[in-house]
Amino acid sequence: MNADLSITNSDLVSLNEACRLLPRRRAGKKPHIATLYRWATGGLRGIRLETVQVGATRCTPRAALDRFFAALSANHNPSPAATTETPPLSDDAINRELDLEGL
């Protein structure tokens, strides 16, 4: 079990409270609690929000929210891959290729 997920962690918030911590979205609405449950159970883009069940309340540490969004950002903004483009051929190289093909 992750040390952040301890119920004695003073940074632990219910998913309902976590909704209020997140930035408002379209039309100034906060994310719905069902969205956070979905992130916790099914994940988003293969990344799951870490939670702990405390009685009837699902909770998450604030640090887990930070890790969740950092992982989403890293997945969404991959580093640029090395290009494997071949350099353009000169006119002489093109003519040699055409001569080899008999054209």
Structural description of this entry:
This protein is of the alpha+beta class and 103 residues long. The protein has one domain (3-76). Helices cover 41% and strands 11% of the residues. Strands 1-3-2 form a three-stranded antiparallel beta sheet. The radius of gyration is 25 Å and the shape is rod-shaped. The protein starts with 11 loop residues before the first strand and ends with a helix. The model has no long low-confidence stretch (mean pLDDT 82).
Features:
alpha+beta; single chain; 3 strands; 41% helix; three-stranded antiparallel β-sheet; 4 helices; 103 residues
Low-confidence runs (pLDDT<50, min 5 residues)? none
The major beta sheet can be summarized as: 3 strands, antiparallel
Proportion in helices:
40-55%
* General form: rod-shaped
Number-wise, the strands total 3
Q: What structural category characterises the helix and strand content?
A: alpha+beta
Widest β-sheet, arrangement of strands: 1-3-2
Radius of gyration: 25 Å
H/E topology pattern: EHHEEHH
Q: Give the mean pLDDT.
A: 82
- Sheet-strand content, in percent, reads 5-15%
The termini sit apart by: 70 Å
Overall tally of structural domains: 1
Number of helical regions: 4
